[in-house]
Recover the amino acids of this structure.
């Protein structure tokens, strides 16, 4: 195909191909958010049950009771599951909510680093990947 200046331009990409890539990224992000939210729920249940996993007695400026951390993680995880299903079904609110909940999960896990550092770092890394996947998806292209 040539344009008015006589220069050969590449053929336009097929809309179906672009949409299939966007759909793949969206489904991947939704599944990753679902896994992340499930992990957060399990983390919350573990803290509420006063499991032996968490380090007790660490004094930090922002120290909360272990049960408080458990409820925070449990609520964030439950909301994350809802956001994952919204994203999985292609809802616009699901994209924005997925990014928002992933940011809140990052903040909560940063604050809970003293209690279980390796687990918190893993969840933070998963949250960053979820944010990247959700924001990389551009269905209007």
């Amino acid at each position: 195909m040539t344009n008015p200046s006589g220069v050969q331009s590449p053929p336009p990409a097929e809309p179906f191909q672009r949409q299939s890539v966007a759909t793949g990224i969206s489904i991947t992000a939704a599944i990753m958010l679902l896994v992340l939210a499930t992990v957060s729920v399990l983390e919350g249940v573990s803290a509420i049950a006063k499991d032996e996993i968490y380090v007790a007695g660490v004094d930090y400026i922002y120290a909360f009771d272990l049960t408080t951390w458990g409820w925070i993680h449990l609520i964030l995880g439950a909301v994350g599951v809802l956001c994952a299903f919204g994203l999985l079904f292609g809802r616009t609110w699901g994209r924005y909510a997925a990014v928002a909940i992933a940011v809140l999960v990052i903040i909560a896990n940063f604050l809970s680093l003293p209690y279980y550092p390796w687990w918190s770092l893993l969840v933070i890394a998963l949250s960053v990947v979820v944010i990247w996947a959700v924001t990389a998806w551009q269905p209007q292209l």
Q: What stands out?
A: The helical segments are 15-48, 66-88, 92-111, 117-136.
